[in-house]
Design goal:
single chain; 417 residues; alpha/beta; Serine Threonine Protein Phosphatase 5, Tetratricopeptide repeat; 3 domains; 7-stranded mixed beta sheet; 10 strands; 51% helix; 11% strand; globular; binds S-adenosylmethionine
Length: 417
């Protein structure tokens, strides 16, 4: 199927999705699936059906959204929330319940983690309420059901599961006392009427959504989020989204790995750009041997002395450690990889992200460039380097890299059947 820009424009307008962030192939696949599901003869027929049917619009949205989430994602942010919540209760003389928003909440892991963290920190149920909102009715329905499988419990410490869940078939059911703290609703962050009559929130979580928006949409959404956050409140965002906020009058509160911003905090080291993500498919395959172009990263590269399966296991481990915020261990695993396997773009990419997290923009740039030397179309390295250049004022350089990333996505999609 050739790219049909009408679908890209539709999704951008409805949910803010920027085709460049997920790649054309994802959207084309979703359109193909929906064409088949309703037995549309051509994409043009499907387009006309889409215009007429609200249900079909929702179905297409469901087919493209990325509901990836899990409990206590970025654990440090929940520890920070618990500390800040106790302080905030004192500030407001315990006169009212704290108001906390999780938008997007996806299938509920984030708002329930907020509730568990606060209950575990000793807050009484009447001291806080959490509101979870997501554009996907299916995800909100799953959140309401509150039954979760293994994928929702990642990372080393899942002791909270024993405290707050009961086994239910193959999965785990969230305890009623946690569920009662969370109100769930369907809603679109781009809808001007959403929460228009609500008081502001003491804490707002908006994580891993802005990365799917283009810059004008991000700017608009930051203004919305700023409006939703109480003037003395705190906004938690995703690791990849930090560098954008500084330009919108909010400052990091300076707690590493929490990605928390307020209007008042003194300008401290900017929150790093760090986008946890699953290892792309290509990494699971044996890593191709390429000439090692750099000599400074680790002392010695010993050519293929470990089997490729070890290489992909180690790559998965690096991803897990980085996603859990264990930067030192993740970096050590990268070094271990480079010492035992041929250089891989993916490892330099992770080192770039870890350097971003540590606030070393120059070092990060170096690693991203090494990733691109090995794999010129590594789209995540292209996107992150572009974001870095943009945050340093090099918009032209950033645009060139974004165009390269878009070309790479197009080439990928053309290769797919
Ligand atoms: C990757 S999940 C993030 C979930 C959670 N915040 C986290 O970080 O784990 C992204 C979610 O954004 C939702 N979403 C996409 N566009 C949205 C919009 N315009 N308004 C509200 N939710 C949206 C999707 O349905 C999806 O559930």
């Amino acid at each position: 199927m050739s790219s049909d820009p009408r679908f890209f424009a539709f999704l951008k307008e409805r949910i803010g999705l920027d085709v460049a962030s997920v790649g054309e192939a994802i959207i084309e696949r979703a359109v193909r699936q929906r064409c088949q599901a309703i037995q549309a003869g051509t994409t043009n027929d499907y387009w006309h059906h889409l215009q007429r049917s609200h249900d079909e619009q929702q179905a297409l949205i469901e087919a493209v959204i990325v509901p990836e989430t899990w409990f206590f994602r970025y654990p440090e942010s929940f520890a920070t929330l618990a500390r800040l919540a106790k302080a905030r209760l004192l500030e407001i003389n315990q006169m009212r319940a704290l108001r906390i928003l999780s938008l997007p909440c996806s299938t509920g892991e984030e708002p329930y983690s907020i509730a568990m963290a606060l209950l575990d920190a000793g807050l009484a149920p009447h001291q806080f309420k959490v509101q979870g909102i997501d554009v996907s009715p299916l995800s909100v329905e799953r959140a309401r059901r509150g039954v979760y499988g293994k994928n929702s419990f990642r990372g080393g410490d899942i002791a909270f599961r024993d405290r707050h869940f009961v086994e239910y078939g193959d999965g785990f059911h969230i305890a009623e006392r946690v569920r009662e703290q969370v109100r769930l609703q369907v809603g679109n962050l781009l809808d001007p009427a959403l929460l228009a009559n609500e008081a502001s929130y003491d804490f707002v979580f908006c994580r891993n959504l802005l990365i799917y928006f283009d810059q004008p949409t991000q700017k608009h959404v930051f203004d919305v989020l700023k409006g939703l956050t109480h003037v003395d409140g705190v906004l938690f965002i995703g690791p990849a989204e930090g560098s954008l906020l500084g330009r919108h009058g909010m400052r990091s509160i300076g707690v590493p790995q929490s990605f928390a911003f307020s209007r008042h905090a003194e300008p401290v080291k900017p929150e790093p750009v760090f986008m946890p993500m699953p290892i792309p498919q290509r990494s699971a395959a044996p890593i191709p041997v390429k000439p090692r172009p750099f000599s400074t990263v680790s002392a010695q590269v010993v050519p293929i002395k470990a089997p490729a399966s070890d290489a992909s296991a180690l790559l998965s481990r690096i991803a897990t450690l980085a996603n859990e915020g264990k930067s030192v261990d993740a970096r050590a695993a990268c070094e271990q990889y480079l010492n035992n396997h041929p250089p891989a773009a993916q490892v330099f990419y992770w080192l770039g992200l870890l350097s971003d997290v540590a606030g070393s923009a120059l070092e990060a740039q170096g690693y991203y460039r090494k990733a691109l030397y090995l794999e010129p179309q590594h789209s995540q390295a292209l996107m992150h380097l572009a974001a870095l250049l943009e945050s340093q004022g090099d918009s032209a350089g950033a645009r060139r890299l974004q165009a390269r990333a878009a070309r790479s996505e197009r080439a990928d999609s053309e290769q797919k059947p």
